[in-house]
Amino acid sequence: MGRCKAISLLWCFQVKRPVLLIRLEKNWLPFIPLTSPPLRPSARLCLSVQLAAQVLGDFDDEDIGFGLVDEKKDSAVAKKLGLDEVESIYIFADNEIIEYDGELAADTLVEFLYDVVEDPVEIIDNERELKGFHNMDEVIKLVGYFRSEKSAHFIEYDDAAEEFHPFVKFFATFDPKIAKRLKLKMNEVDFYEPFMEEPVTIPGKPYVESELIDYIEEHDRPTLRKLEPHSMYEIWEDDIDGEHIVAFAEEDDPDGFEFLEILKEVARENTDNPNLSIIWIDPDNFPLLVPYWEKTFGIDLSSPHIGVVDVEDADSVWMEMDDQDDMPTADELERWVEDVLSRKIDPDDDDDDDDDDDDDDDDDDDDDDDDDDDDDDDDDDDDC
């Protein structure tokens, strides 16, 4: 089929090439507290998609079609395609529907689309590719050792990869030397949590697709995870009891790097705690949001910070650091995290204080009213 920038929706549903669809409405929708002040999502969404379409339109190596679904005019089509959320971007690739939960920026969207069109499993054939695999420590990744691409066990692995592509990185090798370097046995798969030094071998090899999917879904909330532009909404919505522990640190800054290393140490010591999940945000990745975050949270992002944030109202409590030039020790940071998990430190406490203040104000008002009543009584006595 020929290349096109605008395509019919039913045709989109039938073609095998990746297709991007958007649902639009006129009403504005609120953003989550962590992201940005309310703007016009529809306008930003349209502009980002138009720019992405123009960029991809200049390349002949990928065949990606773009289509718009109007929330009111095309409601029947949207229902048939399973498009549930308005102001959302859906990507149809092969038999999978991928919802884009990232930043509404053309460059981020284009980069994400190129990830989508890549094979779900990347093959490691040599030492250079193995080094690249080890350098990728900020994402969930899996690696398996199989006899060949025609192996039934590899096919199961590849099918599981399609379910999580491109959010979870899948790797494989057919080279026994590479497998030895990875300490993998035949048909074995290792699971790497972000920032952890050692992987976990998934039990029960050889695996079927459903077993791999179940294991990943059970372990898809890392102890320490980085907020990425292409998945920022998805990560922020994955809160624990309505709260997030958030750490701001610039990796390229000496203080930020030091704080991040301490954070990794704490995460590694507590990786078995299912109630602990820390979101690391590098302000350099979100320059336009830095002023908003600083104003909302009352912090200076030129230095590292860690705090607990209420996802509903953006109330927050931040760890006090006596000297910004002297980072907290791993023990001090771990004790602070334990206080957060035990609710000794809770952003909702500020709400209670505010309520108390309101009650005090009400009491003062009542007292004033009583005084006024007394004055009125005195006036009445004088009149008598």
TrEMBL record:
Keywords: Calcium, Muscle protein, Sarcoplasmic reticulum. GO terms for molecular function: calcium ion binding. Belongs to the calsequestrin family. It is found in: Sarcoplasmic reticulum lumen. This is Calsequestrin. Residues 339-384 are annotated as: Disordered. The keyword Phosphoprotein does not apply. Calsequestrin is a high-capacity, moderate affinity, calcium-binding protein and thus acts as an internal calcium store in muscle. InterPro entries: Calsequestrin, Calsequestrin_C, Calsequestrin_middle_dom, Thioredoxin-like_sf. Residues 347-384 have a biased composition (Acidic residues). GO terms for biological process: regulation of skeletal muscle contraction by regulation of release of sequestered calcium ion. The lineage of its organism: Eukaryota, Metazoa, Chordata, Craniata, Vertebrata. Its main location: other. One of its GO terms (cellular component) is sarcoplasmic reticulum lumen.
